[in-house]
Every structure is written in structure tokens, then in C-alpha cells.
TrEMBL record:
Domain of life according to the entry: Bacteria
Signal peptide: 1-23
Lineage: Bacteria, Pseudomonadati, Bacteroidota, Sphingobacteriia, Sphingobacteriales
GO molecular function: endonuclease activity
Domain Endonuclease/exonuclease/phosphatase: 133-372
CC cofactor: Mn(2+); Mg(2+)
Name assigned to this protein: Endonuclease/exonuclease/phosphatase family protein
Record keywords, A-Z: DNA damage, DNA repair, Endonuclease, Hydrolase, Magnesium, Metal-binding, Nuclease, Signal
Any coiled-coil regions, as ranges: none
InterPro entries (alphabetical): Endo/exonu/phosph_ase_sf (IPR036691), Endo/exonuclease/phosphatase (IPR005135), TDP2-like (IPR051547)
Length: 381
């Protein structure tokens, strides 16, 4: 067995022990109640299509506190494909996400009996989808070797075929390629090796690569290429408003996205995926959260431009609830979703009907890797 596979197995066993309710390490968050003997329990049983248990499936449970959802429990299934999570908010409605390498992911709506145990059976189909993740990893994991290793081990739970990365600082072309290989991607490309690069890694070759860097026009630049028969863009727009003193070239995000979309519009013969940190908001988030959404009056020009080019925001395609990607420290510590969605995966109109799963991955692990959460989709091959 290869060394990486042994490390992955050891890591998985550790996380299974740490994530299950039996470990005694469940954090109930802000809704903990003392002297509460009646428990609301969610007992998951995860199997494949033949009925065999799936060990190491990652389950995250969210409960509804309108207009928001809170994350109340998570962990890996045991050897019998089982995990029990406790909901100390004692709510009735919510959902769970279930994912495992080699299988299609699922989102399951949950309607529970309060202060009782609910048994939930979930079947995951054998993987027949393309898995794509986009992630702003905050200054290249701050060049922390332990963080890089932890990410490489964690990401194999989702086992994406393609990853679009932003803020890939502290990497050379060679070290980026070596890093990608630690999680099973033999192909990698960066826009540049100075400043704040974007990158693409893939299990298959990346062809027809274009690295677009225009000083004074594009704040970070972007990289695009073809892999798995689709055209992908990893982008990162200017984080500053035009009048900010740190925006020395007075770059406007609306101008950046126009350049990128004019480029993306050239590829009409293949599905196109545009992922990254847009530093812009979306009317869907304001409307799904409700009147209390504190970013409701922010600019939506960038996301509206993508829509004008007939690109589809993949999160609203399959969801009706608000879920932020930033800032991680606020979302993870306060429980309720008080953040904003700045990170997106958009697909061209000819691919929207192929999107079968989408998510913003909030977990105990992504609470630690960055100040942003990753976005994730699965599309029919």
C-alpha cells in the first residue's frame, strides 16, 4: 500500500473516532442546555445501492431557525455506516449533507420528532458525476506545512476531480504541482508565482491553458484551461472598492468580470465553469435570508453580469436557504449564518441541467483552513 494511502487511512480512522457522537466531543454550540435529559437524536445509516454500509461517509446536520440554518452536528460514519448526532436546538426541520469518496453526494431534508431519536437511512449512488471544488485558501495556507497536509488529507473526503484555487501565495510552479499530487491530482497550473495567484488542479491533463495577467486592469488575473471535456476558469476579483486607497489602479470589479465573461463566452462548444472569489454579493442571498440580511444593499453588479451572459449560479439551482462563504470566524463561532456569500461557482447555460449537487462546505475542518468556505458542485459527466 502506498504511503499516502496509509496516511489517509490513519487520518480517516482518527476522524471517525473524533466525529462520532460516542466520542463525547460533540460541541452543541450556543443552544446547549444544562440538565436536559430528553435528547433529539439523529441516527444515520449510510449504505451503497447494494445495501452495504459505507464507512467514512461525512455527515453534516443543519437545523432550521428561520430564516437561517445552523450546523448542529457532524462526523464520519463508522464501519457499519452509522453515526448518531445530537440536536440540542430541539428543532424539527432542517437538512443533512452526506458525502463519501467514490459516491455521489446527497442532501436530505429532515423533519424530526423533538426530543426523540429519528432513524435516517441514506443511500449513496456509485459516483457517475464530475466533482468540482473552488476554494480561496487565504494566502496559500499562510505557507503552513501542517495546514497544507491537513487540507490534502481532508479534501479526499470529497475527492474532487477538479479544484479551482485562489490566493495561492508562497507556491512556485514546481511546489504547486507537488502539493496537488499529495491529494491525487497529477496536473496543476498557476496564473503566476508573484502577488496573489489563482490556480487549477485536476486528475486529468489541463489543456489549452491561458494565464491572463494585466497589471492595472485585472487585480489578480485569472487562469483558464480545459480538463475532463469542460472549460474552467479560476478567478479572483479585486477586494477593494474603487475609491479605496489600497486600490492604486482604481480597478472596478464590474470591469474585471466583463473581461472574463467576454473570454468565457468564446467557448460555446463545451460546458464552462467559472469559480472563485468574486468579492460581490447576490440578490438570492438577500431574498432567501429575508429582510434582516445586513448585506442586502450591497452591490450585485458582478453576479448580475454573469447572469446577463447566461451563466447560472449553482447554489440557488438546488437550494432555497441562505448559506454564507465568509467570514469563517464569525459563522463558525456564532452558529447562525451571519456572513455573506462572496465565493461562487457559475456554469454556462448549456450545463445548468447537468448540476445534480451543490454546496458550501461548512465543517469542523473548513472552519480552520481559511477565512472563506469552499464551494462545491457535482455535474453529470
Amino acid at each position: 500500500m502506498k504511503t499516502r494511502n496509509i496516511m489517509q487511512l490513519v487520518f480517516l480512522v482518527f476522524l471517525m473516532l473524533a466525529g462520532c457522537k460516542s466520542s463525547g466531543e460533540f460541541d452543541p454550540g450556543p443552544f446547549a442546555r444544562e440538565n436536559d435529559d430528553d435528547k433529539t437524536l439523529l441516527s444515520f445509516s449510510v449504505t451503497d445501492e447494494a445495501g452495504d454500509p459505507i464507512a467514512g461517509a461525512y455527515v453534516v446536520s443543519y437545523r432550521q431557525l428561520a430564516p437561517k440554518h445552523i450546523r448542529v452536528g457532524e462526523g464520519y460514519t463508522d464501519a457499519q455506516g452509522k453515526i448518531q448526532l445530537e440536536d440540542q436546538s430541539h428543532t424539527t426541520k432542517g437538512y443533512a449533507t452526506i458525502t463519501a469518496p467514490g459516491f455521489n453526494s446527497r442532501k436530505v431534508d429532515l423533519d424530526l420528532e423533538q426530543k426523540q431519536e429519528t432513524n435516517i437511512s441514506v443511500t449513496l449512488p456509485t459516483q457517475d458525476v464530475l466533482k468540482v471544488m473552488s476554494y480561496n485558501v487565504q494566502e496559500g495556507f499562510k505557507n503552513n506545512a501542517q495546514q497544507k497536509q491537513a487540507f490534502a488529507e481532508w479534501v479526499q473526503t470529497y475527492d474532487p476531480d477538479i479544484i479551482l484555487l485562489q490566493e495561492m501565495m508562497h507556491f512556485t510552479d514546481a511546489s504547486f504541482a507537488e502539493f496537488a499530487q499529495t491529494y491525487g491530482h497529477d496536473h496543476a497550473v498557476l496564473t503566476k508565482t508573484i502577488g496573489i495567484p489563482t490556480g487549477i488542479t485536476s486528475k486529468e491533463p489541463i489543456d489549452n491553458i491561458r494565464k491572463v495577467v494585466q497589471t492595472g486592469v485585472l487585480h489578480h488575473g485569472y487562469v483558464t484551461g480545459e480538463t475532463f471535456g469542460i472549460r474552467v476558469f479560476s478567478i479572483h476579483l479585486c477586494p477593494y472598492e474603487v475609491d479605496n486607497e489600497r486600490n492604486i489602479h482604481r480597478i472596478a470589479r464590474k470591469d474585471e468580470i466583463k473581461i472574463i465573461m467576454d473570454d468565457a463566452a468564446l467557448y460555446t462548444s463545451v460546458p464552462v465553469v467559472v469559480g472563485g472569489d468574486l468579492n460581490d454579493h447576490n440578490t438570492f442571498d438577500r431574498d432567501s435570508y429575508g429582510a434582516g440580511y445586513r448585506y442586502g444593499d450591497r452591490d450585485h453588479t458582478v453576479t448580475n453580469t454573469l447572469k446577463a451572459y447566461n451563466f447560472q449560479d449553482t447554489y440557488p439551482l438546488l437550494h432555497s436557504e441562505f448559506k454564507p462563504t465568509w467570514p469563517v470566524d464569525n459563522v463558525s463561532s456564532n452558529g447562525p449564518n451571519e456572513g455573506a456569500r462572496l465565493d461562487y461557482i457559475f456554469v454556462s447555460d448549456n450545463a445548468k441541467n447537468t448540476v445534480v449537487y451543490s454546496d458550501i462546505i461548512q465543517s469542523a475542518y473548513t472552519d480552520k483552513f481559511s477565512d472563506h468556505y469552499p464551494t462545491y458542485i457535482e455535474i453529470k459527466k
